[in-house]
From TrEMBL:
Lineage, broadest ranks: Eukaryota, Metazoa, Chordata, Craniata, Vertebrata
Protein name: LRC18 protein
Regions of compositional bias (Low complexity) in chain numbering: 225-239
Region (Disordered): 220-253
Ranges of residues in domain Disease resistance R13L4/SHOC-2-like LRR: 65-185
GO CC terms in record: cytoplasm
Keyword annotations from UniProtKB, A to Z: Leucine-rich repeat, Repeat
Annotated signal sequence range: none
Amino acid sequence: KAKGRKGKKITLKTAKNSIRISFDGGRRLDLSHKGITTFPKCILKLADVDELDLSRNMLKKIPSSIQKFQKLRWLDLHSNQLKELPEAIGTLQNLFYLNICNNKLTTKNLPEKLNLLKNLHILNLGLNCLESIPTSLGALKELKEIGLFDNALTTIPNSVKNLPKLKKLNAKRNPFPDSEQEENTDSIKRIDTLYLVQEKDLCSSCLRMCHDEGDKLNKFKNVAPSPSKKPSFPLLLTPNSSAKDNQEEWRVR
C-alpha cells in the first residue's frame, strides 16, 4: 500500500522559537505553512499564548485538547483539510477571531457549541461545504463580520442576518434562489436613526451651519484632482511575498 504523506514533526523547541510578540503585546504562536499533518501535542505546553496560527497546513483534525488554550483570542485554521471541529472549541470564551475558511467542513460537522463563543467578533466559514447555517449562530451577539462565501448555501437564517452588531456579511458565490441573491451577497449596511427636517424647522444657527457645510462640499467636488505619480510597490508582487512577515499589523481586531 502506498504510504500517506508524512508531515513535518514539530518539536517543543521549534514551537518556542515560533512565538512572536504581536503589535498589541500579545504572544502569537505561528506554525503556519509548516507541512503539519497532525496537531502537535507539544504545543499544549504553550497553551498560555494569546494567538495561534495553524493555517496553510494539512491538518485533518483538531483535538479536544484545544480547550487548554483558554487565553486564546485569535485562532487561524484556514487552508487545511478539516472535516470537523471539536465541541471543545466552544470553551474558548475569550476568542475574538476565528478563521476556518478553505477546509472541508459540512453543516453536520459544525460543532453545536460554536454558539457559545460569546465574545466572537469575526467568523470566517468561507470556502467549505456548508449546505446551511445553524440558526443557533444567532446567539453570537458580538459578531461584526461573518464570511460564508463559496459554500452550497441556498438561504441564510434571519437569526444570523439580523445580528445586532453585524456590519459585514460576505455570502458571494452560493447557489441562492434569484429572489435572495442580491439580498444575501451584499455587505450589510445599517443606519440606526435618520432624521429629515425642512429648512423652516431649523434655527438660524443650525441652518447657517448646514449651508456652510454644503458650500464646503460643493467646493471640494469642483476641485480637479492634481495629477500624481502612481505609487510603486515592487516588494508586494504577490500576497504572500515579503509582506507576510508583517501580516499581524494588518489583522482586524
